[in-house]
Design goal:
The chain is of the alpha+beta class and about 270 residues long. About 35% of the residues lie in helices and about 10% in strands.
């Protein structure tokens, strides 16, 4: 073989080896580019995944409220009135409104599966003792009072606190508009980890309150049994929604708390 042919053959072998070596791995530039692309895709996907999770939790919460609504409707159909928020007795075993509907919705409210999944995910406390002594320790609240501030002389506008002042089923003027049960407005405790929700539904200020559980609002069960998301700025602003709190579907401004106690003022 001539010298020129041998050299050409040698060069071909060298080029072939280089190509094989290059084909066997990534260069640093290629690797960094791949990592950057993956990071960009992850950044684009994470908000969508987070939103999907939030939507799933909200849908689960709405389903739980619908089950509670069925229980309330069956209780009211059997007795002619709605359950009272509480009855007098030993705080350790005090019965609350959600205990009353257990025969119709046989999951006890002290079970985590009964409570809003967002509340449970935030280390929400579920405690009969706390509910009995200071009204907190549950993920759903009951419209016992209506729009009233809770002072003496407040008319019985809600579903009722004690058995003697419960709302009669036929007395509710607009069941499709009246609030019955909602996501609890939670407080962040200093003596415990997580959050604690209040069973007493109120339109007015709470100390150390956390953000609304579902975006900027709360899931709401209405007396007729349907469930809807209610914007926080509507739910907690009496001029817009006071009538939704009350059995007679009237706003009753004479029962409102002073404006400095409102959560939302416009």
């Amino acid at each position: 073989m001539a010298g020129g042919d041998r050299q050409a053959s040698h060069n071909k072998r060298r080029v072939g080896k280089k190509r094989a070596k290059r084909a066997g791995g990534f260069t640093l530039i290629e690797l960094l580019t791949s990592v950057a692309i993956i990071a960009l895709l992850a950044a684009l996907l994470l908000p969508a995944l987070s939103k999907a999770k939030e939507n799933a939790q909200s849908a689960s919460c709405k389903n739980l409220l619908k089950q509670t609504g069925l229980g309330l409707k069956m209780y009211a159909a059997d007795y002619g009135w709605y359950p009272s928020l509480a009855v007098r007795g030993n705080p350790a075993n005090r019965i609350i409104c959600f205990d009353r509907i257990y025969p119709y919705y046989p999951v006890c409210w002290t079970n985590a599966s009964w409570n809003c999944p967002v509340y449970i995910a935030q280390n929400g406390i579920v405690s009969r003792e706390m509910v009995a002594t200071n009204s907190s320790g549950i993920s759903y609240s009951y419209n016992w009072l209506g729009i009233g501030a809770g002072g003496r002389g407040t008319p019985p506008l809600g579903l009722g606190h004690l058995p003697q002042n419960v709302a009669k089923e036929l007395a509710i003027v607009a069941p499709s508009q009246m609030y019955a049960v909602a996501d609890a407005r939670c407080i962040k405790g200093q003596s415990f980890a997580g959050v604690a929700g209040c069973i007493k539904m109120s339109a007015y200020k709470l100390g150390n309150e956390t953000a609304a559980p579902h975006g900027r609002g709360y899931n709401m069960l209405f007396v007729d049994g349907h469930v809807a998301w209610v914007k926080r700025n509507d739910f907690l602003y009496p001029p817009r929604t006071a009538r939704n709190w009350n059995v007679d579907n009237q706003p009753h401004p004479e029962a409102w708390a002073p404006i400095n106690e409102w959560v939302v003022t416009n």
